[in-house]
Amino acid sequence: MDNELFDPGQFQAELALKSSPVAAFKKAIRQADSVLRARFEGGRNIHKLIHDRAWFTDQILRKAWSIQASTDAADIALLAVGGYGRGELHPHSDIDLLILLRDSDQDSHNGSIEQFLMLLWDIGLEVGQSVRSISECQEEARADITVITNLMESRTLSGDEQLRQDMISAISADQMWDDAQFFRAKRAEQQKRHAKYNDTEYNLEPNVKSSPGGLRDIQTIGWVALRHFGTNDLRELVERGFLNEAEYNILASGRAFLWQVRFALHILAKRAEDRLLFDHQRTIAQMMGYEDNDSKLAVERFMQKYYRVVMSLSELNDLLMQHFEEILLRNAETTEIEPINSRFQVRNHYIEVTHQQVFKRSPFALLEIFLLMAQHPEIRGVRADTIRLLRDHRHLIDDDFRADIRNTSLFVELFRCREGIHRNLRRMNRYGILGRYLPEFGKIVGQMQHDLFHIYTVDAHTLNLIKHLRKLNQPEYQEKFPLAWRIFCRLPKPDLLYMAGLYHDIAKGRGGDHSELGAVDATQFCQRHQLPAWDTHLVSWLVESHLLMSTTAQRKDISDPQVIHDFAVQMGNQVRLDYLYVLTIADINATNPTLWNSWRASLLRQLYTETKRALRRGLDNPPDREEQVHQTQRAALDIVVRSGIEEEDAEALWEQLGEDYFLRHTASDVAWHTEAIIEHPDHEGPLVLIKETAQREFEGATQIFIYTPEQHDLFAVTVAAMDQLNLSIQDARIITSTNRFSLDTYIVLDADGSSIGENPDRIRQIKHDLIEALSDPDAYPSIIQRRVPRQLKHFSFAPEVTIFNSPEGQHTILELSAPDRPGLLARMGRILLDFDISVQNAKIVTLGERVDDVFVLTDANNHALSDPELCSRLQNTIIETLGNSAQQSDTSQPKQIII
């Protein structure tokens, strides 16, 4: 009896004093909530907490039942079912009840049942209830696996216990859902649930209950055990030999950790919230005692703990479900055994050891088993007993093991297999082998960066990258990644690419430059595995340079021949360029599926193609800007003349344009612009053209070309209008002719990252709204105040602004890193307009919750900014304006409760 939680005497006194029982019940519930919360804050054992809550709910329901129902009737009983039936309740968990009747004639109880349920509603208990007879329970259970699962876990709260026993007999395995059928259904249910979460434990905002490795996986083991053994008590499963002590400890401690997180979530959300949202991650990390350190935030340390726990639970769930499958489904199968060698054999498509001492006598077999599965893709998996042996012997992997040439040879050989590389590296990681063989990899297991850019843990991203590399070798991916597919097929040693992929992020979370630190680790790995010097150097260089191509493509003007030449010098040769291009494609796709869009594809393809041309020309033969301009003009002229444009008219227009225009545009774009400008009547106002940038579906964005008399607020007005049109600007190229006309090109995507495509209505709307805005610049488009997406609200940091002049001194470069917010680019345009500054070029990069933008600027006289005080004021204004914008957008964020 816990009188602090519920005092029966005090409760009866309250009932006697009140004219209605509702007030007494509500007071008791408020007091219990307060007591349980205080106990949680005080660090009370979570197992006791959730059972105490269930115990308290028992008392309340029994009192309510005694007031409203016929408690002395022998043909009715009140049962707790589901999680509540197990005696487990979190602050806002479902309270599932079954009002069980002896037969389907319930007329005599209708009134009291209705009054009982109304009372529960009035006192604020959210219950899920059903009213069924034993025969109806049997009928429903036979039809629905979830119903029988709920009924199996039942307790009698009030009434005749014999009723429940009769119901349990009616739904027993000899009546329906025998052990094998029940297992198949629960396994299918689990597979469907896992698929909903992309079969990964590593979601940015995981569901503590339903994601892989969550509480539902533990419950699934319990349900199958209950059906087969008659108990779901984890300790009793140890006594029956189904679990060993170490596995019991993993399940028990993992469940306690997840219970603690779920309890905190319910308190913070004040409702049944099982998603570990960004809204709550930082607060729960604080509640659970995590603190920031030099290399990781407290929230990152907490989430790494979470991911490691659920990964361990997933691993154990795999083992136990496999064990159940062998017990319940395969015992009746005809046994087919195919020997592989003296250590391993295949039993009915699953690999197993030939005797229990294999790993003890031959530790190298801890790696050999994964190589064998890669070499024999017909093998479906590992038998449960062998998985258990792997877990029990992984401690044998020590420094001597890692230095043994037999083991290093086996590991390298895995990367040279035709199939199964990713699948078996993932198995090695899941069974805890990979992190022991490569301790540096073990450090990144479960490590999450607290942002919206990296949606997987570092280890999951790394293995995902290798998976994407493997895809690039498959014919079905030729259409989506045509250039990468062709390059991959001609790589001399693909295994080196996989090794570089394995190590490219290995040093995340250590502090310092992870690319440089990772290159050191990669070199040591290659040397330990006795790779040739050329191979070692390439792998190390790829790790150190793995971000170089994406940052160059997205942050620099790759239409500039000098940028291409400098990048080609960094590549050095075609082989490096090929390897790096393929690695970059896989890295982007493996980081976040939303990152790979048509515009990034075209940028990387352009950078690769131009660099390949520069390498063929020779690094000692720098690009000739004038010759490139002439080549573009000659090719464009061929096009426009065939279209009926006079050569003299085209050349007259081009004389008004500088070199930069022809360097930044292709010959086909120059011809497109030229024809439209010459045919455009001056009196019709701004010329706006829209088309796709490329023909391939996967490598195109939308190009908007604007030709209009120069006006100082042109950039600001244009980006504000595009913001109103819900367009995402990826690139801006601003050209001013000698006759003071602007020829501006914007590369845009729709807000969801897709190109506009062949959508006549959308294109007409864009043209109309842009022409209207540019025709009346005094009516400056208002900056839309859009609602900030929920996830973005939780990433607020001070904008960083760097201002410096270009090496040649003609322009000023402004680099901006800030929280991504709706209307950010429009606000930047307004600020630059207020400072009388013109934008000559812009690179727009959005990475998760942040933007990293680069602006090329000049003053009103088309010169670089030369006044340090002006630059300082500009910098401060941007930081203050964008910082205030981020904070204002966070005002709608629900206040977090600090416990």
Task: Furnish the topology, listing elements before pairings.
Elements: H1 8-17, H2 21-41, H3 46-68, E1 76-80, H4 82-85, E2 95-101, H5 110-122, E3 127-133, H6 134-143, H7 145-152, E4 155-159, H8 161-170, H9 179-196, H10 215-229, H11 234-239, H12 245-269, H13 278-287, H14 298-328, E5 337-339, E6 344-347, E7 350-353, H15 358-361, H16 365-375, E8 381-382, H17 384-393, H18 399-403, H19 405-414, H20 421-430, H21 434-437, H22 439-442, H23 458-471, H24 482-489, H25 494-503, H26 514-528, H27 533-544, H28 548-555, H29 561-571, H30 574-591, H31 598-617, H32 625-642, H33 647-654, H34 659-664, H35 667-679, E9 687-692, E10 702-709, H36 714-724, E11 727-736, E12 741-750, H37 760-775, E13 800-805, E14 812-819, H38 824-834, E15 838-843, E16 846-847, E17 850-858, H39 868-889
Parallel strand pairs: 2-3, 7-8
Antiparallel strand pairs: 1-2, 1-4, 5-6, 6-7, 9-10, 10-12, 11-12, 11-15, 13-14, 14-17, 15-17, 16-17
Structural summary, described in words:
Mean pLDDT is about 90; it is low at about 695-700 and about 890-899. It is built from 39 helices and 17 strands. About 55% of the residues lie in helices and about 10% in strands. Helix 10 packs parallel to helix 14, helix 13 (about 280-285) packs across helix 14 and helix 30 runs antiparallel to helix 31. The longest helix is centred in the middle third of the chain and has 31 residues, at about 300-330. The strands form three sheets. Strands 9, 10, 11, 12, 13, 14, 15, 16 and 17 form a nine-stranded antiparallel beta sheet that branches. A four-stranded mixed beta sheet has the order 3-2-1-4, with helices on both faces. The chain starts with 7 loop residues before the first helix and ends in a 10-residue tail after the last helix.
